[in-house]
């Protein structure tokens, strides 16, 4: 590993909950020579002779999908793969549902699933597409593939959602679906027959193209990611804007998001600054190591066409975040990344621990808590964290999205960092990091290169459930 990248990082080690101490002991037991192992992660990265991804010794990858290749349904693997999640396949192996961050301009450059001039876009696709467009559909959406980690073979791959736009991130649900989020606010014009900026649900069990349904009560904004608290069914949503909010959706019927619900934005009860971005060096900075109690503000006109939702929410007291991106649920905690947060604008990671009565009548008496877990002081160590996931052994794994070469950065329970993977070969961001249900395979996308990788190696054992 390049010594310049072993930075000092501002992290909330003093505020780590007692439960994380057990994770540290588990890590020390899992890797011999615990002091050195905890300082260096999985060890120095090895140069990849294939020129795709550098990994530590003992780890290897396999390319399991490539943009432009023909899928099982006769369509082409779309480009710009982004967020994704892995689900157990009933017949064995893994079902991987993957977003594709395409808009009409990118699709015309050959990144869409339908091939040149969209000649394969037929009546079946038009009927199930959210937006069939004019002469061509909106080509964002999702693909699903079935993969066997033991043999390294892809059994099938197909288009599972279409007619959407810039499907950036999203998140898995406890009921076995993927929430695909549009990072778009396109309106009706010569390219769009419908408005965009919504969340769509894709059951992992679907064996073909699903009927696209916009979940409009979850808001129309520059959606990025979604994460579901399995205890309550509350859905948390991030927004990719420099002045973004953190949202939550309280479904009327947990697990049935289309049945309606309430959209709210997070505010801080005991901090008047209402700005977590730390862009100004003054007394209003949010420092790691302190937990702030929270409250939630009801929002109205959540599908407004004027992109005013975040401004109206902030005017009512909601806290500002710097480009909210990756969200993931794990360890009883919501983790979320803010790509341009911090004094260096190099990225932040926050933790939100919900109230015991999240969304209920007694929530005000025992509110949830928010703390700044990590703030990067050195872009050489962590630059612009985007998608993230909670590893089976309790660390975080962050995907970088920066103008230099991007990598995967691990975060210990005490906030210290280590570099797990690096892509020094091109400017492609890494996206969609997620683990197979058994914790033994890590999947990740190299977005601009159009590759989806399956990574195997000596991962630590999973924590007890």
What sort of overall outline do the alpha carbons produce when their principal axes are compared? Answer: globular
Biggest sheet details: 10 strands, antiparallel
Q: On the 0-100 scale, what is the average pLDDT?
A: 88
The value of Rg in angstroms is 21 Å
Percent of sequence in beta strands: 35-45%
Q: Structural class of the secondary structure composition?
A: mainly beta
Q: How many E-type strands?
A: 27
What is the rounded distance between the termini? 33 Å
- Name the poorly predicted regions: 1-39
Helix content: under 10%
- Please report the number of helical segments: 5
Describe it:
- The protein has 465 residues and is mainly β.
- The chain has a domain at 71-214.
- Helix content is 9%, strand content 35%.
- It is built from five helices and 27 strands.
- The protein has helices at 19-30, 34-40, 104-111, 123-128, 309-315; strands at residues 10-11, 45-46, 55-56, 60-66, 81-88, 94-100, 140-148, 153-164, 167-172, 177-182, 199-203, 223-228, 235-239, 247-251, 261-268, 292-298, 324-330, 333-338, 348-353, 369-375, 385-390, 396-400, 406-411, 417-423, 430-435, 441-446, 451-456.
- The strands form six sheets. Strands 1, 12, 13, 14, 15, 16, 17, 18, 19 and 20 form a ten-stranded antiparallel sheet that branches. A four-stranded antiparallel sheet has the order 4-27-26-25, with no helix packed on it.
- Strand 17 (324-330) and strand 18 form a beta hairpin.
- The longest helix has 12 residues, at 19-30.
């Amino acid at each position: 590993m390049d010594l310049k990248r072993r930075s000092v990082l501002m992290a909330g080690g003093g505020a780590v909950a007692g439960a994380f101490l057990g994770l540290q002991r588990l890590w020390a037991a899992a890797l011999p020579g615990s002091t050195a192992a905890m300082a260096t992660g999985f060890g120095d990265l090895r140069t990849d002779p294939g020129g795709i991804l550098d990994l530590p010794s003992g780890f290897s990858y396999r390319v399991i999908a490539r943009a432009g290749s023909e899928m099982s349904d006769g369509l082409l693997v779309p480009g710009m793969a982004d967020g994704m999640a892995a689900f157990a396949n009933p017949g064995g192996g893994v079902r991987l549902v993957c977003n594709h961050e395409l808009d009409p301009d990118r699709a015309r450059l050959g990144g869409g699933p339908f091939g040149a001039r969209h000649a394969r876009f037929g009546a079946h696709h038009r009927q199930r597409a959210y937006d069939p467009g004019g002469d061509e559909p909106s080509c964002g959406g999702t693909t699903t593939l079935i993969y066997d980690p033991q043999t390294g073979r892809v059994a099938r791959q197909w288009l599972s959602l279409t007619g959407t736009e810039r499907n950036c991130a999203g998140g898995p649900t406890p009921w076995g679906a993927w929430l695909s989020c549009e990072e778009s606010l396109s309106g009706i014009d010569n390219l769009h027959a419908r408005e965009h900026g919504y969340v769509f649900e894709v059951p992992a069990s679907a064996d073909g193209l699903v009927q696209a349904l916009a979940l409009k009560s979850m808001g129309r904004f520059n959606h990025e990611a979604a994460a579901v608290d399995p205890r309550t069914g509350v859905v948390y949503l991030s927004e990719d804007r420099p002045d973004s909010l953190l949202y939550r959706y309280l479904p009327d019927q947990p697990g049935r998001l289309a049945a309606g619900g309430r959209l709210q934005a997070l505010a801080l009860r005991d901090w008047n600054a209402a700005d977590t971005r730390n862009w100004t060096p003054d007394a209003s900075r949010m420092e790691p190591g302190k937990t702030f109690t929270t409250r939630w503000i009801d929002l109205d006109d959540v599908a407004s066409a004027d992109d005013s939702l975040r401004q109206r929410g902030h005017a009512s007291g909601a806290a500002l975040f710097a480009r909210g991106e990756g969200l993931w649920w794990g360890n009883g905690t919501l983790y979320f990344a803010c790509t341009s947060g911090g004094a260096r604008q190099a990225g932040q990671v926050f933790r939100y621990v919900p109230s015991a009565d999240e969304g209920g009548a007694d929530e005000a008496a025992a509110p949830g808590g928010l703390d700044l877990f990590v703030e990067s002081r050195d872009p050489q160590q962590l630059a612009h964290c985007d998608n993230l996931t909670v590893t089976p052994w309790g660390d975080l794994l962050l995907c970088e999205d920066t103008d230099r070469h991007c990598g995967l950065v691990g975060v210990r329970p005490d906030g210290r960092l280590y570099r797990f993977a690096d892509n020094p070969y091109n400017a492609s961001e890494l996206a969609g990091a997620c683990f197979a249900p058994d914790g033994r395979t890590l999947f990740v996308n190299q977005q601009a290169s159009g590759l989806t990788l399956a990574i195997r190696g000596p991962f630590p054992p999973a924590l007890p459930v």
